[in-house]
């Protein structure tokens, strides 16, 4: 499928380039509807991989790339259920989102996240599955999950550890503080820094350069320099589920759900 327009995202394939645009107000929170549409996208990406050189992921929402998991949906889905069913639902969601991100991570197609504004939690994890992150100067990155008594659950810790030094990984995880685009570039998280509102334009220019090279060599290079930490990814799901069973987590989600802050996910 070369084009698609859904409830939370859309994509278009043209001249060997896929562009996936997240577009769910207010901040591209990742819930079950977006997960289902992401599953459709990775299926299309897989089927078109031989004809595709680059895939660009971006956001049409002014608040940013993605604020992460839809915590209100998670709370309302989980709260009425007995503990065993609640945990089964969470694990099923995590298994599905991991499959999506692992597919993006492993595809022979070069993937670029064009990021602006908030890139938090699960949205940050989606960007980390990509080969390159190009960010405008107003972008910010964060893992606020510890505020809820959880760890990132979409594969963020293993992927960040793969790419960066432990000092930065521990700092962003254990403090919950957000990092601006300039520091993200300085530590090697962001490959290129763009002017405000220019990340997608820079990503398209970078895609045109990447597309010039031999597909087999490009795929071999990506596979060689970007091993997927499968064992750690599976362990992350187990740790997340163990933590999720605690009453403190449901209490934190309830507090989040009841918050009247405009952007309660901001660290």
The termini sit apart by 38 Å
Share of helix, binned? 40-55%
Largest sheet: 7 strands, mixed
CATH superfamily: 2-enoyl-CoA Hydratase, Chain A, domain 1
For the largest sheet, list the strands in their spatial order. 1-2-3-4-6-8-11
CATH class: Alpha Beta
Chain-averaged pLDDT: 94
**Tally of discrete structural domains:** 1
Tell me which CATH architecture applies here: Alpha-Beta Complex
> SSE order, as H and E?
EEEHEEHHEEHEEHHEHEHHHH
Count up the helices: 11
User: Can you count the beta strands?
Assistant: 11
Structural class: alpha/beta
Which spans have pLDDT < 50 for at least 5 consecutive residues? none
CATH fold assignment: 2-enoyl-CoA Hydratase, Chain A, domain 1
Report the β-strand fraction as a percent range.
15-25%
Shape estimate? globular
Radius of gyration: 18 Å
Can you describe what's shown?
- It is a single chain.
- The chain is α/β, with parallel strands linked by helices.
- The protein has one domain (3-258): 2-enoyl-CoA Hydratase, Chain A, domain 1, CATH 3.90.226.10.
- 49% of the residues lie in helices and 17% in strands.
- It contains eleven helices and eleven strands.
- A seven-stranded mixed beta sheet has the order 1-2-3-4-6-8-11, sandwiched between helices.
- Strand 3, helix 1 and strand 4 (54-59) form a beta-alpha-beta unit.
- Helix 1 packs parallel to helix 3 (83-106) and helix 2 packs across helix 11 (247-258).
- The radius of gyration is 18 Å and the shape is globular.
- The termini are far apart.
């Amino acid at each position: 499928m070369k084009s698609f327009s859904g409830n939370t995202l859309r994509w278009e394939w043209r001249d060997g380039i896929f562009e996936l645009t997240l577009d769910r107000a207010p901040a591209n929170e990742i819930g079950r509807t977006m997960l289902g549409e992401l599953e459709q996208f990775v299926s299309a990406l897989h089927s078109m991989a031989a004809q595709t050189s680059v895939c660009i992921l971006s956001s049409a929402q002014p608040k940013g790339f993605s604020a992460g998991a839809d915590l209100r949906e998670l709370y309302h889905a989980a709260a009425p259920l007995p503990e065993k069913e609640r945990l089964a639902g969470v694990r099923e969601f995590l298994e599905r989102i991991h499959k999506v991100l692992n597919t993006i991570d492993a595809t022979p197609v070069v993937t670029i996240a064009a990021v602006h504004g908030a890139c938090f939690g699960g949205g940050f994890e989606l960007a980390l599955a990509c080969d390159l992150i190009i960010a405008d100067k107003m972008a910010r990155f964060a893992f606020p999950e510890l505020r809820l008594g959880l760890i990132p659950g979409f594969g963020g810790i293993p992927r960040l550890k793969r790419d960066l030094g432990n000092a930065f990984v521990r700092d962003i995880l254990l403090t919950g503080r957000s990092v601006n685009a300039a520091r993200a570039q300085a530590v090697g998280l962001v490959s290129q820094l763009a002017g405000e509102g220019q990340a997608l334009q820079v990503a398209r220019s970078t895609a045109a350069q990447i597309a010039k090279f031999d597909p087999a060599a490009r795929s071999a290079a990506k596979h060689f320099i970007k091993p997927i930490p499968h064992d750690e990814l599976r362990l992350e799901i187990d740790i997340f589920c163990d933590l999720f069973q605690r009453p403190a987590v449901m209490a934190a989600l309830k507090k989040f759900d009841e918050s009247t802050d405009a952007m309660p996910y901001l660290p």
